[in-house]
Amino acid sequence: MTPRSRRRKHAISQLNLMVVGFKSLGKTSFIRMLFDTLRIRREDNIQLPASLFQTAEKPGDAEAASTKELYSFTLDVEEENEKISLTLVDCPGFIKDNELRLDVQVTEALRYIEAQFDLTLAEETKVKRNPKALDSQIHACLYFIDNANNGLTDKDIRILKRLTARVNVIPVVAKADLLTTSQLANLKKTINRDLKFHQIPVFEFAEAEEDTDIDQELEDGEEQEQTASSFQSMIPFSLIAPEDAIITDPNTSERIRGRQFPWGIIDCLNPKHCDFVVLRNVLLTSHRKLFKDRTLESFYEQYRTERLLARKASKMITKEQKKKLLEDLSEI
Ligand SMILES: Nc1nc2c(ncn2[C@@H]2O[C@H](COP(=O)(O)OP(=O)(O)O)[C@@H](O)[C@H]2O)c(=O)[nH]1
Ligand SMILES: [Mg+2]
């Protein structure tokens, strides 16, 4: 092993994920479930936000438990022998019935994403760069879609168009327990049709395969099995978050993360019940590097170019204004 590869093996990879969408679709519940399934390396210095534990299982709790402002927290985790510094960003839910407020909310989420690009830009322009500078860019953003609508609404489309210009967006359908198997399949189909019709460039696995080193992938049997098209066909991923109550598997008597119904139990970690486990693996393991590469190569580069052009343009305006001022003065 060369010193470089040894260094890489022990290097800690940074991964920053964000969740956005309308209110009460299960964003915070998803973050809580993800947190609950992580293998945390260092418990001593974590500062968990209180809002993460505010659940709304009882009627009347909903408003108190809803996310009031954007918050983030970082965890040192280990996933398949790799160390990851994982930052999770939770946003307040978008409000449906106020168009102006909705636009402001989306702008706020985008500003947060752009502020992270600004940090990289500032670091890049330093004479003496810090090689250990943290990568705070948002590598993937889960967009929660309301399963009560038949596909994407006009508002979803507007929001998605703005988000996909700045970040890898992964659409998800939360609360999939509220749909039957065929309803979910139909909804997924309709959402994909809407995405295609409106040309919304959400993250695509098919393209991703071209980007990855195929030789590397072939070494890994598991990767081979789960091809890009099988991931692609899962979009939008279906999610179910567990309820607070203690639920045990009737066969094993072990506690499971699930939801209990009069007719049976949902196990949120069972891939037959929802796509949580697959999505978790895509984010933390199989496509982690790709999300990061795309962020840097496409989204950051685009932002950087726009910023530099804007700076140049503002300088040009000043020059022109200066010239005009001098001309005006000479006429007096
Ligand atoms: N049926 C069902 N309810 C859920 C699910 N996930 C969350 N909820 C409930 O939906 C409500 C809103 O969830 P929350 O995570 O606060 O939504 P957020 O506003 O998007 O952060 C809470 O009462 C949750 O218990 C789910 O997968 N299925
Ligand atoms: Mg929330």
What's a quick, concise take on this entry?
The protein is an alpha/beta fold and 332 residues long. 46% of the residues lie in helices and 16% in strands. It has a single domain, classed as Rossmann fold (3-Layer(aba) Sandwich).
Protein model, in words:
The protein starts with a helix and ends with a helix. The protein has 332 residues and is of the alpha/beta class. A hairpin with a 2-residue loop joins strand 2 and strand 3. It contains 12 helices and 10 strands. The protein has a 6-stranded mixed β-sheet with strand order 2-3-1-4-5-6, sandwiched between helices. The protein has a two-stranded antiparallel sheet with strand order 7-8. Helix 11 (276-286) packs across helix 12. It is globular. Bound molecules: guanosine-5'-diphosphate and magnesium ion (MG). One of its GO terms (molecular function) is GTP binding.
Summarize the helices and strands and which ones pair or pack.
Layout: H1 3-10, E1 13-21, H2 27-36, H3 62-65, E2 71-79, E3 82-90, H4 99-124, E4 140-145, H5 154-163, E5 169-173, H6 181-197, H7 205-211, H8 214-219, H9 221-225, H10 228-232, E6 237-238, E7 247-248, E8 255-256, E9 258-261, E10 264-267, H11 276-286, H12 288-331
Parallel strand pairs: 1-3, 1-4, 4-5, 5-6
Antiparallel strand pairs: 2-3, 7-8, 9-10
Helix pairs in contact: 11-12
The chain binds guanosine-5'-diphosphate (GDP) and magnesium ion.
Residues 27-28, 66-67, 90, 93 line the site of magnesium ion.
